[in-house]
Amino acid sequence: MNGTILIIVSILGFLRVLEYSISRMNELWMLEKGGIERNKGLNSWLFVLQIAFFISLYIEASLISDHQGINIFWLFVLLGVLTAKLWCIRVQSSFWAVKDIYVPRIHVIRTGPYKYVKKPEYWILAGELFAVPLFINLYVTFSLFILLHCSLFLVQLPEQTKQKV
Q: How far apart are CA 88 and CA 37, in angstroms?
């Protein structure tokens, strides 16, 4: 495996672990405040797909003997996506979580990216699914996980959009 690709995938994996750690602390806090987790099926499948995504990145990168390097365009897209994710985390503060948790009697945050899009985290996830594998030219992982996530969202999103608040 190309050493540069291994380092890149490791850094991205570390950032994902950090993200889930912050999310877990916030989840516990929200549940303490009476929060209710919604869409458990979607949350579980997204978690499994995220783990499989990183495993696939490692496997595909290790199978390519003559790697093409990195794609600068997708690097900038990835940096933009990561910046948008940080914006969401900053705006939502203690209410930011990977899981969909509703806290009764708390107003829905409608500032930052939430002023423009109801659930910007889904757009950010889509951006990551494009940018990460294309940034390091891993086309099999890109194709496979776009199909898997689209299939999941086609099943889960209609149910989720019916929910109030």
A: 19
Name which of 12, 161, 162 is nearest 75 in CA terms.
12
List pLDDT tens digits, range 16-71: 999 999 999 999 999 999 999 987 777 788 889 999 999 999 899 888 766 677 89
Compute φ and ψ for 69, nearest 5 degrees: 85, -150
Beta strand 100-102 pairing with 36-38 = antiparallel
Is 149 within 8 Å of 129 (Cβ atoms)? yes
H/E run at residue 38: strand 36-38
Torsion region of 36: left, alpha or beta (phi above 0 gives left; psi -120 to 50 gives alpha): beta
Q: Hey, what are 147's tokens?
A: 């199909």
CB neighbour list of residue 43: distance below 8 Å, 6 or more residues apart? 37, 98, 99, 100
List the Cα angle 110/165/83 in 5-degree steps. 40
Distance (Å, whole) CA 108 – CA 111: 9
d(CA 125, CA 129): 6
Q: What does the block give as tokens for 119?
A: 């659930």
CATH of domain 3-161: 1.20.120
Domain ranges of the chain: 3-161
